[in-house]
Structures are given as structure tokens and as C-alpha cells.
Specification:
Blueprint: E1 7-13, H1 20-36, E2 45-50, H2 57-67, E3 71-76, H3 82-93, E4 99-102, H4 114-122, E5 127-132, H5 140-155, E6 164-171, H6 172-179, H7 188-195, E7 199-204, H8 218-232, H9 235-263, H10 271-304, E8 311-315, H11 320-323
Parallel strand pairs: 1-2, 1-4, 2-3, 5-7
Antiparallel strand pairs: 3-8, 4-6, 5-6
Bound molecules: uridine-5'-diphosphate and magnesium ion.
């Protein structure tokens, strides 16, 4: 029996013209090695997902698909964002593969643990998380914000794997499970543990981006973190409720105090505390309304059920004949 795996590697690319040649070269080399070891079969593919890039990304991918049968390309009709592009890629390949690995185009994640991931898959694991050993190559800023983010997520009761981003292997049935999540606000590293099945981790050192710039500026990072929390946890809303309760108790105490002042004839002096309470309550209300609004905004997006991505082309797709081989 042929035990070699039909592996698809899904690589989201947004304006990655500077890295694509090197990335595909290294991946093809690795694919060659894994094939000669009999780990993966000839139907295995490296699938580059062009997330509506403005540079030459798609034409490079297109050329690569012509030169190498192992390379396939998916083009999204517009920029859908990293998580959507990744999800789109995985859903596009899931029916052609035994398992799929997602990895960033800049190869900051070490591709040399891919064989280990595949071996874990053969050992019966459905999800294999790629986990960073250390974060030496990240800037101090990125490191501390990342650690803070994981801590905050845990505090809010969201189960995510520490130091794991979106470098992971998922089996076909895990992908089928993921396909059943119909939410629009994607936060894959929070969703995958919810799918379940047996999972394990492999460890690697994270490199620096070898070319090009990060597509995750601070603004995107913060909105990603905020999305992660509000998509997965209602504890912010509970905290507001608890805060509201405390404020109510204080308000009662203030009322008693004001009444006593009135009776003993010192009412005029209450102006300052009154003004303070008005402002305080006003602030709390605004904050609460804003937060509730955030959730309502999410509900609004969910009920619209807009497509997460629209594929414009799928080049070098495994043919029907090849599939049934
Ligand atoms: N990416 C994407 N769509 C976007 C932004 C980023 O597909 O809108 C891809 C990008 O090409 C890369 C991956 O997501 O392959 C991670 O981006 P990046 O390396 O810039 O993030 P960082 O490593 O700095 O967090
Ligand atoms: Mg990167």
C-alpha cells in the first residue's frame, strides 16, 4: 500500500513579489526531498493564494505554475485579509488533499519542520501546531505585545496555543470540521482548537523576514487582537456589567450622602460631587454602549452572510484524472 501523503501547502501572499522566487525555490527543494523519501506523493502541491496584491505577485505565481507542476495558484478577486485568504486557500484545496499546511510567504516559520508535521499526521494526529521556541528575531515591541496578547486572551477564557500563529497542519477531516464554522470574523488560531481531534505541536525557531516588509502594521495588529477577543469572548461585556453593578452601589451611597447633606442644610456644597457623578455615569454609559455596539456590529456582519472570499482563478488545479489515479 502506498503510504505517501497527498500534501497541500497553502501560502497566502499579499504584495510578496520580493519573496516569492526564494520561497518557491526553498519549498520545491523540500518537496523534492520529501518525495524521494516517499513521505509525500506526486499529487502534492504548493498553493500560492494571491490576496488581491497590487504588485507582480500574481504574474510571478502564474509563471511558477507554468514552470513547476507542483505549484498551483489561487487568485482572490480582491484583498480579503490574511485570515480570509488563508481560509479561502484551505477550503479550496481540502477536497484534493490528505492534509494541508498553512504557512506565511516570508518563510519566517521554518519549513524544515514540515516533514515532522507530516510524520505526526501519519501517526494519527489531525492537527499539528507549529510553535515558536523563542522570539529573538522579533523586535522587543512585537515580542512584548505578543506575550501581552496571549495573556489577555487566556484571561478572557479563549483557548489558543501559546506562541503558535498560523503555521499548522490540518488533516482533511479537520478541514471539513473547520468548513462548518460559518462566522465571518475569522480568527483561525482560536477556531482550530474548537474543531477538536487529536493535536500535537512541533517546535522551531522563527527567522526574520528575508525580504519585503511586514504586512501587519501596528494598526492591523491591534485590530486583529481586538477582533480575536470580541469574536471569542463575552468577558468584556461581563466586566462592564460587573462595573455597572459596582457603580450602582456607589450611586446609592451617594444618594444617602446627598440626602443627609440636604437635611443638615449643607446642600450647596454638593455641586462638585454631583458634577463628578454626572460625568462618571456618562462615561460609563458611553463605554458600555460602545462595547455593546461592537457586538451588534459583529452580529450585523454575521447575519449578512457575505462571502468571505471570491475566487477569480484557480491555476494548475489537480485534474480529475489525476485525482482518481
Ligand atoms: N497577508 C495576506 N493578506 C493581507 C496581509 C498579509 O495574505 O492582507 C499574508 C502575507 O503575504 C504573509 C502573511 O499573510 O504571507 C503574514 O504577513 P506578514 O509576514 O506581513 O505578517 P508578520 O509576520 O509581520 O506578522
Ligand atoms: Mg511575516
Amino acid at each position: 500500500m502506498d503510504k505517501s501523503v497527498n500534501l497541500y501547502v497553502v501560502v497566502p501572499c499579499y504584495n510578496e513579489e520580493a519573496v516569492l522566487h526564494e520561497t518557491s525555490k526553498r519549498m520545491l527543494e523540500l518537496f523534492g526531498n520529501m518525495k524521494s523519501e516517499g513521505l509525500i506523493n506526486d499529487k502534492s502541491r504548493i498553493v500560492f493564494v494571491d490576496d488581491g496584491s497590487r504588485d507582480k505577485t500574481w504574474s510571478i505565481i502564474n509563471d511558477l505554475t507554468k514552470e513547476h507542476t507542483e505549484i498551483a495558484g489561487v487568485k482572490l478577486a480582491k484583498n480579503a485579509g490574511h485570515q480570509n485568504a488563508l481560509f479561502g486557500g484551505l477550503m479550496t484545496v481540502k477536497d484534493s488533499c490528505d492534509c494541508a499546511i498553512s504557512i506565511d510567504a516570508d518563510l519566517q516559520d521554518d519549513i524544515n519542520v514540515i516533514p515532522e508535521m507530516v510524520k505526526n499526521y501519519l501517526d494519527g494526529y489531525d492537527v499539528v501546531y507549529g510553535v515558536r521556541n523563542k522570539r529573538d528575531t522579533d523586535t522587543f515591541f512585537k515580542r512584548t505585545t505578543a506575550v501581552g496578547f496571549y495573556k489577555l486572551m487566556h484571561l478572557m477564557g479563549v483557548n489558543i496555543v501559546f506562541n503558535h500563529a498560523d503555521y499548522r497542519l490540518m488533516s482533511k477531516r479537520a478541514l471539513d470540521g473547520l468548513a462548518q464554522f460559518h462566522e465571518r470574523n475569522l480568527f483561525l488560531r482560536g477556531m482550530v482548537p474548537l474543531v477538536g481531534y487529536r493535536s500535537t505541536s512541533v517546535y522551531y525557531d522563527r527567522n526574520e523576514r528575508f525580504a519585503g516588509e511586514s504586512k501587519y502594521p501596528l494598526k492591523k495588529m491591534l485590530s486583529f487582537a481586538f477582533d480575536g477577543i470580541t469574536s471569542f469572548s463575552i468577558s468584556p461585556i461581563r466586566m462592564i456589567s460587573a462595573f455597572g453593578a459596582v457603580v450602582c452601589v456607589i450611586a446609592v451611597a451617594m444618594a444617602v450622602y446627598a440626602l443627609v447633606q440636604k437635611i443638615i442644610g449643607h446642600a450647596g456644597a454638593g455641586w462638585a460631587s454631583l458634577m463628578m457623578s454626572i460625568w462618571f455615569i456618562g462615561g460609563v454609559q458611553l463605554l458600555s454602549v460602545g462595547l455593546i455596539g461592537e457586538y451588534i456590529g459583529k452580529l450585523y456582519k454575521e447575519v449578512k452572510r457575505r462571502p468571505r472570499y471570491i475566487i477569480e482563478a484557480y491555476v494548475n488545479e489537480t485534474s480529475e484524472a489525476e485525482k482518481s489515479e
